Amino acid sequence: MFDEIVDRRGTHCYKWDRLQDACGVDPDEGIAMWVADSDFRNAPPILEALQGMVDHGVFGYGYDDAGFRDAICWWQSTHHGWQVDPDWIIPTQGLGHAIGMILDTYTGLGDGVCFFTPVYHEFRGKTEKGERRPVEIPMARDGDRYVLDFDAAEAAMDPSVKVLIFCAPQNPSGRVWTGEEMRAVAEFAARHDLIVVSDEIHSDLIYPGAKHVPMAKAAPEHADRIITINAASKTFGIPGLRTGYAIIEDPDLRAAYQRRMRMTEYSPATPGIAATKAAYSPEGAEWVKDLVVYLDGNRKVFDAGINAIPGLWSMPLESTFLAWVDFSGTGMSRDEVMHRVRDVAKIGVNLGPAFGPGGETFNRFNFAMRRALVEEAVARLQDAFSDLQ
Ligand SMILES: Cc1ncc(COP(=O)(O)O)c(C=O)c1O
Asked: Residue 245: how many CB atoms within 10 A of its CB?
């Protein structure tokens, strides 16, 4: 089912229709491996739910839907063993929106917002757009994976830092943090009186051997400062429906967010609510199991092909469909690497430096696409770097 060809060109699709403008790659001959969304047809329960709305034919106002909250509670409980009270849930327009709302609610102009890098570029983006101060804490390396450097984190702290945004699982490296690591982050936040935002959008695409532990479950004694943000969007390929959720257990913390939300008159769009409910269902769960098996296959094809090119190295992933590839072993300049990736292989990627310190020699490749296209991308990269073979 995931091998089906779904041509997204000409569908107002950011990833494919902006490929030329953003990456300098012609979509008619290129491969879009940037933007973290997937090219697969959506799961049948989602399509049925949306088709039902179209057949009904009226797109009137909706309301804050108890079924949406119940579906989230069911999903978190069955997939992550976390018992969430429906009252803790606040719908959002997605996680970017939630991060903006959080910074707006709990910080002021010039306040510090910290995060471990390299990381999803919009942590820095939202901080800067809101005229807050990004405080970047480079992660350390333990062999072939990243670890958190709390000495560096301590050194970066000052009283103006108010929020820590944590990516769990980690984009771009695919690290799945252990319960102890999650707990250590919450403890660090408590030591410095930070609100900690745990971005768990990638928590349902976990490869065999790893296990995601929600931060609020790993560190329940710090619930008064934890805001979890999540969505069905990455897993189910529905980010265009712009629906996610924040889970805030602490009543005072939650009240502040809700006040801001009421003032901006945000309410979720009905198709996003319907799709999330349909996704977070037993049928949706079965579909995700198949998806993870398929993505695991893509990951193996991609990594084997990339690691066969001398000088290129794909970091082993525990989660996500985003491969993090280091080009430093080629000894080439970034311009030369990008010339080969963009102009020779004709592949659009996310540039490593955008993810902050630690990303300088990397690029990020999204392989959430049919296997044949992943194989094609690998073959093109092998050709583009064939002088290194
Ligand atoms: C870690 C992380 N958080 C948030 C987002 C964006 O979420 P949304 O589309 O809901 O704004 C992404 C998208 O790539 C992401 O990787």
From this structure: 23
For ligand 1, mutation pick of 33, 34, 95 (most atoms within 8 Å of CB): 95
Tokens representing 15 are 């990833």
Residues 300, 276: Cα–Cα separation, whole Å: 29
What was the pLDDT predicted at 66? 93
Ligand 1, residue 95: give the atom nearest the CA: 10
Q: The tokens of 339 are what?
A: 């010339």
Mean pLDDT per 10-residue section of the chain, whose length is 389 residues:
96 98 97 98 98 97 90 98 98 95 98 98 98 98 97 97 98 98 98 98 98 98 98 98 97 96 86 98 98 98 98 98 98 98 98 98 98 98 91
Distance CA 345, CA 24 (A): 12
pLDDT at 264: 87
Best probe residue, ligand 1, of 37, 97, 122 (max atoms within 8 Å of C-beta): 122
| Cα 193 to ligand 1 centroid, rounded to whole Å | 25
Q: Tell me, in angstroms, the distance from the centre of ligand 1 to residue 129's CA.
A: 16
**The pLDDT of residue 338:** 98
Structure tokens belonging to residue 301: 């094809």
DSSP symbol at 139: P
Q: Are 239 and 10 in contact (CB under 8 A)?
A: no
Using a cut of 0.85, tell me whether the model's pTM lies above it: yes
Instruction: Quote the ligand 1 centre to 165 CA distance (angstroms).
Output: 12
Distances (CA, A) of 226 to 15, 43, 94, 99, 252: 32, 31, 18, 13, 12
Q: How far is the CA of 364 from the centre of ligand 1 (A)?
A: 15
Whether the CB-CB separation of 323 and 367 falls below 8 Å is answered with: yes
Radius of gyration of the chain (CA): 21
Domains of the chain and CATH, by start: 14-43+284-388 (3.90.1150.10), 59-281 (3.40.640.10)
For residue 311, report the distance from its CA to the centre of ligand 1, in Å.
30
112: enclosing H helix or E strand: strand 112-117
